[in-house]
Every structure is written in C-alpha cells, then in structure tokens.
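TL;DR need structure tokens for one chain.
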Amino acid sequence: MIIVSPNNPTGGVASRDEVRRIAAAAPQSLVLIDQAYIEYADEGIDPAVLDLANVVVVRTMSKAWGLAGCRVGYAVGSSDVIAVLRAAGGPYPVAGPSLALALSS
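>> reply
TL;DR here they are.
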C-alpha cells in the first residue's frame, strides 16, 4: 500500500493514527509512506510509525532541496524491510557526484 503524505496536489496529510490503523489492518502488507513533499507540511509522521515492522518511509531530496537532477532519495524502515530493498537494488544505486552533493546539503 502507498500513502502519499502530504499529497500533491491536494495537500492532504495522513495522521499518525491513520497510518498505524492501516498498518495494523494489513500486517502482511508493506505500507510505503511517500513523503516527497514533507518539507511543505507542518510535521512528519515518521517518528511515530517507524516502530511498525511493515512501514517504510521514503523521501527525496529533489523537491525542497532543489536536487532533482541528482536523483537522490532514501528509505527508512525496519532492518528487515531495508535488507530486502538493498538486496533488490543495484550495487551502485546513486552516482558518486550526486551522493557527495546530497551529503553536503
């Protein structure tokens, strides 16, 4: 399942309770929270949901940080989910110059 929060173009934001309820209702499903526009929201929900084993939060540095050409993003979740993502990804998922620029931002 994918929850986009805040949603573009509506601006709707998922609450912590909503995400927790969805994750609990579907324990065998991965709940991906896309927070590409989180810098434009009042607050993120990730600290309150990262303890859930089936939730992963993804963010990008393309929007608020102005690094669209760099294609840099990151995922935060349980060690089990991140291990699967690492196994599925390529050996060099981010170009060296893009990584250096992201680390300096």
